[in-house]
Amino acid sequence: MKSKNVRRTLLSLLVVALMGSVFGSGCYDRIELEGMAFVVALGLDKGPNNTIDVTVRIAIPSEMGSGNDGGAGGTQLGASRPMTVRSNTVAGALTLLNSTVERRISLLHLTTIYIGENVAKEGVLNFLGPLVRMRDFRRTVNFFIVPGEAREVFQANQPVLEKSSSRFNESISEIGRHTGLTVTNKLHDFLITTEGSNEDPIAPVIAINRNVQQQAEEAKSQGQGGQAGQGKQKGTRENTMPDAKVSFKPGEVVRMGGNSVEFIGSAIFNRDKLVTYLDGIQTRVLLMIRGELQRTQMDFPDPQQKGKFEAIEIKHARSPQMEVDVKSNPITIKIKQKLEGDLVGVQSTIDYTEESNMRVLEDSIKKTLKQKEEDLVNQMFHEYQVAPFGVFRQARAQFLTEQEMEAFKFRDKLKNAKVSIDVDLNIRRIGVQLAPVQAK
C-alpha cells in the first residue's frame, strides 16, 4: 500500500515537472520575427456610417537604406506601400489587415500616428483609447494632426534625405526643437494633458503643400522623377510661386521642389477635440509663453529703415513667470518673459554696434513680441475658451482639494480673463561682423 502511494506521489511530481517545463518556459505561444509584420506608421480617418479607415505602412527591413525612389515605383521609407482597411474599430481593422498581409500584424515598432482632421474634430480619445490598451502599443510614439485625410500623407510623403521611417520622425522632432516652427510632444504628453484639469493639449501638424504636390505630379508625368526637386523644373518662379508674401501656414509655405509634406504649425484642442490651427510664427509665440522655446531665429522689421528686416536668434534667459488669480472677477493672469538674443543678420545700413541703435532695436522687438503674445492669448481665451499655455498649473495652490479645482468652471472665466504680458529682451551678441558692410 505504501509503495502505491509512493508511486502516485512520484507520478504526480513527474506530471507537475513536465507541465512546468512546457508552460513555465514562456515559449508555448512564441512568434518568430520572420512571422511578424511590424507596422511603422498608422493613419486614422473617419469612414462612413461611424466606421474608421486605418492606413498602415509595414516595415521591410531589406529595403531600409536601399535608396529606392518611392516616386519611381520603389518603396518609400524602407516600408511597404500604404494599405487602408475600413472597420468598426481600430483593433478590428488591424485584424482585417491579416486578410491581405501574410504575417501577423504587430505594433511593437510603431513610430508615428497620423490623425486625420475629421477624426481630430470628433474627438481623438474615441479612437486612441482602444490603441492604448493593446499590449504591443507604446504611448511614446510620435503623432501628427493632418489637415485633410491622413492617407494622403502616406501617398505624398517623399523625404528629401531620410529612407528610414523611424529616423524620418526623429529628424522632424529634432528640427522642430531647433526651429520652433512646430511642437514636438509625444502622444503620452497629449494623453496626460487631456486627462488633467484646466489644461488643453496641443499637437504637431503635418500638412501637404498642394502647389508642390502639383509640381511633383507634373514632373513625374514628364519623366523627371517622382519628386519636384528632381530633374529640370518647368516654369518660372513667378508661375510656380505666385504668392508674393511669406507664409508660415501649414501646407501654404511658398516654395518650389522638395517634399510635398510640410511639418510646420500646431493644432489646438479643447479637451480631445480639434478647434483650430496655429501657423509657424504663432507656434513660436505659444512655445515662448509655455517656456519650451529652446532657440529659434526670427525676422523683425527694422525700426529705422522701412522695408528692411533684421534676423535675431532668440532663447529664454530664464523660465517665464506666471501669476494667476482665480479669486478675482474677472480672473487676472500676468506673464513675464525674460529673453536674450543674438543679432545674426542685418539688412539695413544702420550700425547696431552703437548702444543707442541697439536700444531702439530691442524696444521695437519687445513691442512686437508683446503684441503677438497678447493677440494669441486673447484669441485662445476669448474666442475659443481653451488654455494651451500651462498657466493654470500655477493656480493649483489656490484650491484646497482636487475636487474643488475640477469643479472650477475655468472655460467660462476665460471669456473675460484679464491678461497682462511683459516682455524683456537683451541682445547680448552681434555676431563676428562688428560694423555694417557698406560699399564705398
Automatic annotation (TrEMBL):
| Compartment(s) | Membrane
Q: Which InterPro entries match?
A: GerAC_N (IPR057336), Spore_GerAC-like (IPR008844), Spore_GerAC-like_C (IPR046953), Spore_GerAC_C_sf (IPR038501)
The answer to whether UniProt assigns keyword Signal to this entry is: yes
Per the record, the domain of life is Bacteria
Specify the protein's topology with respect to the membrane. Answer: Lipid-anchor
Name the keywords, alphabetized.
Germination, Lipoprotein, Membrane, Palmitate, Signal
Protein's UniProt name: Ger(X)C family spore germination protein
- Family from the record: Belongs to the GerABKC lipoprotein family.
Q: Residue ranges of the Spore germination GerAC-like C-terminal domain? A: 265-431
Spore germination protein N-terminal domain sequence ranges: 29-207
Q: Per its UniProt record, what NCBIfam families does this chain match?
A: spore_ger_x_C
Q: Where is this region: Disordered?
A: 213-244
Q: Name one Pfam family in it.
A: Spore_GerAC
Q: Does the keyword Nucleotide-binding apply?
A: no
